[in-house]
Design brief:
The complex is a heterodimer of chains A (about 160) and B (about 375). Chain A has about 160 residues and is an alpha+beta fold. Chain A folds into three domains: about 55 residues, no CATH class; about 25 residues; about 80 residues, 2-Layer Sandwich (Alpha-Beta Plaits). Chain A is built from four helices and nine strands. In chain A, the strands form two sheets. A five-stranded antiparallel beta sheet of chain A has the order 1-2-3-4-5. Chain A has a four-stranded antiparallel beta sheet with strand order 6-9-7-8. In chain A, strand 3 and strand 4 form a beta hairpin. Chain A is elongated and about 60 Å long. Chain A starts with a strand and ends with a helix. With about 375 residues, chain B is mainly α. Chain B is about 80% helix and about 0% strand. Chain B contains 16 helices and no strands. Classes of the chains: A alpha+beta (about 160), B mainly alpha (about 375). At the A-B interface, strand 1, strand 2, strand 3, strand 4 and strand 5 of A face helix 4, helix 7, helix 8 and helix 14 of B.
């Protein structure tokens, strides 16, 4: 991963930027006023901004969402590679599941299998680190981390109880 | 009309006129400062519509304007930024001082003003406009450029230099003994170092002491505190402006960010009044006589800022076009030149100084940004 440089702009705000593999500089200026500016420069004059876009709060969320999804998966994948024997899986709650409409605590997943539910994904939105009182609905996807055997056991629990 | 009614109408008229001028400046895409000055010139003695009744009130407003300008300048910078800024451009900062102070000083001597008023004129030509340049960088979308931290660091350096320069000039203007002047400078430097140290180690705590969840409490506390410190500083001959600057520097941390939006409208109002007041106290009929000098001085000090910027950016490893942009950005002079000239009003031998400073700032506040825009059009935007 390229190193993100942080530069203080006295009186204006803060700038974070890095150079892409193609030699383009990309960065964001966080103005004191709250204004966010995304900018790019081209290799022929790396000092100068070629394009810039002002992002509202909403825009920034949308952009980070668009980029962030893949980052989460990438990070999980690299985590998986780092810890041997660790498995990550996405398990969907089917309508017939005995735990559809019940809480995560009811399934006693960690006690029975040692597997952790790290997030619930519902309608494209992620609920990270759900507590035992989190209500699981049909169609939800549970992101689980544990041993491969443990995850198979969770799959069985969620399907047949 | 009785006195009070007249005062309200006249004052309202002045502020309303400022509103129109600010709108016009926005339309033209220039800094409103030159227009405020012109407005003041038109309203003063020998101008188009002399303002008499509210002049006293405007004078107080102008004093508040200087205090707010410097307070906000101090608030804008954290102690870490100040220290880092000065370290990163120390050599360039000294070159900047030498190259840009000298033309004003020499011009004053040539005009036969004597040493003290000439030193003030040196201050006028030295200091770039933080306000105009910060706006320029944002408007031209230069904030992402690599040379931008260099430009901003030079401005930080200048602002700190001004904190030493102002008490020096104020002491000189009072005509004290050499010792008196040296003591004023010593006190100012000691106070500045202590203010920066306080901000460096305890700024967040101090900030949260002064600023409160309630906007009202924060506003009254910071306003009162600043006025008291500014008043004491003025009494101690180190100038109210420096006192306000020190208050601004001492406060930092999260709380200050909120205070920024709270104080900006007050700063804008009183700073505008200050520029008008400067225009008011300047005799417009003196301007034609000094216009040629102002233009000459403008051309010389545009070149000296270009050299400064080129040198500073080259030291930071910026390419040729970036060096040019740095120099162009630094050309603009504005509020702080007027602050310095304002201190010189009334000192003997400097009758033409306000007129020259006004004409000079009128030229530089407009031509600096225009030169930058011409040299480097706004980058094409993906979307607006």
């Amino acid at each position: 991963m390229p190193k993100i440089e942080e530069t203080s702009l006295p009186g204006v705000g803060m700038r974070h930027d890095f150079t892409t593999e193609d030699g383009n500089r990309i960065g964001v200026v966080h103005h004191r006023s709250g204004r966010r500016e995304l900018f790019f420069s081209s290799p022929d004059d790396p000092d100068r901004v070629r394009h810039s876009v002002v992002l509202s709060d909403e825009d920034s969320h949308a952009l980070s969402e668009a980029l962030g999804g893949s980052t989460v998966i990438e990070n999980l994948t690299s985590l998986q590679q780092q810890i041997e024997g660790l498995a990550i899986d996405w398990l969907t709650i089917h309508p017939q599941s005995p735990y559809s409409g019940r809480t995560i605590g009811d399934a006693r997943i960690r006690t029975r299998t040692g597997v952790s539910v790290v997030a619930v994904i519902r309608d494209d939105q992620a609920y990270p680190a759900p507590g035992p009182e989190f209500n699981v609905e049909s169609g939800d996807t549970l992101v689980v981390v544990g041993t491969p055997d443990g995850i198979n056991a969770v799959d069985a629990i969620l399907t047949v109880g | 009309m009785d006195h009070e009614a007249l005062l309200l109408v006249e004052l309202g008229g002045v502020v309303l006129a400022l509103g129109v001028l600010a709108r016009l400046a926005g339309r033209l895409g220039i800094s409103p400062i030159p227009l405020y000055l012109l407005g003041g010139l038109a309203l003063g003695e020998g101008g188009l519509v002399p303002v008499v009744t509210s002049e006293e009130f405007i004078e107080v407003g102008a004093a508040l304007g200087v205090i707010f300008l410097l307070l906000m300048l101090g608030l804008d910078y954290s102690a870490r930024e100040l220290v880092a800024g000065v370290r990163s451009v120390a050599t360039a900062g000294i070159l900047d001082l030498a190259l840009n102070f000298t033309p004003g000083f020499v011009a004053g001597l040539i005009l036969g003003w004597g040493v003290v008023p000439s030193l003030f004129m040196g201050g006028v030509t030295y200091i770039s406009s933080t306000g105009v340049i910060a706006k320029l960088l944002i408007d031209l979308r230069w904030t992402g450029n690599r040379e931008t931290p260099v430009i901003l660091s030079i401005l930080v350096f200048e602002d700190l230099a001004m904190a030493v320069l102002l008490p020096t000039l104020a002491a000189l203007a009072l005509g004290g003994s050499t010792w008196g002047v040296l003591i004023s400078i010593g006190v100012a430097i000691t106070l500045m170092v202590s203010a920066i140290s306080v901000a460096y180690w305890q700024g967040d705590r101090l900030g949260s002491l002064v600023f409160h969840r309630s906007d009202e409490v924060s506003l009254l506390t910071v306003f009162g505190l600043t006025l008291v410190v500014a008043g004491i500083a003025e009494g101690a001959n180190i100038s109210a402006a420096v006192g306000a600057f020190l208050v601004g520097i001492s406060l930092s941390g999260e709380a200050v960010k909120k205070a920024h939006s709270l104080l900006t409208p007050l700063r804008d109002l009183f700073a505008a009044v200050f520029f008008v007041f400067f225009g008011l106290s300047t005799d417009p009929s003196a301007i034609p006589d000094v216009l040629l000098v102002a233009v000459g001085l403008g051309m010389v000090t545009a070149v000296t800022k270009l050299v400064t910027g080129w040198y500073a950016a080259r030291r930071s490893g910026i390419g040729r076009s970036g060096r040019l942009r740095t120099g162009l950005a630094l050309i603009a002079r504005g509020e702080f030149s007027i602050v310095i000239a304002g201190l010189a009003v009334g000192i003997p031998g400097a009758d033409d100084l306000p007129a020259l400073a006004a004409a000079y700032v009128l030229l530089m506040a407009v031509s600096g940004p225009v030169a930058a825009k011409l040299a480097d059009p706004v980058p094409r935007q993906v979307a607006t």
